[in-house]
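Researcher: Please translate sequence to structure tokens.
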Amino acid sequence: MPVGKLGPEDVVTAQRDDDLETVTGLFAEENVGAVVITEDEEPVGIVTDRDAALAIPENDDVGSVSVEDVMTADPATLREDDEAIEISRAIEEYNVRRFPVVDEDGALTGIVTLDDLVATIGEQLENVADTVEVQSPDYSP
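Model: Translation complete:
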């Protein structure tokens, strides 16, 4: 299954010149743990709830901190036509759990996470279990 079919297509985004208060408000309003920072429809950064939490002890007025100061610039992305297994490979390579999804022109089209990978594997294992049970009537889990 292609990556572009796994995660949500409606990605919560912000701009580099937004402040952290705006982004943390989006976390709460949209019930997400990451906001993709875009410029000309392309992802140029990502801010996670962890990034926001780590900014607290280092800043007196954390709400006014610039998104650009806490975001991960140039985030690792996956193409919408990559196969789902690429999420696992990207997690290993980049040591992150969230990936903006882009089209062939680099425009943001979605986001996928470790959770999407786990859910997909779970669905696939359920399909395998169903097949095993049909082909092996004496099998009992």
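Researcher: Any highlights?
Model: The two ends are 27 Å apart (CA to CA).
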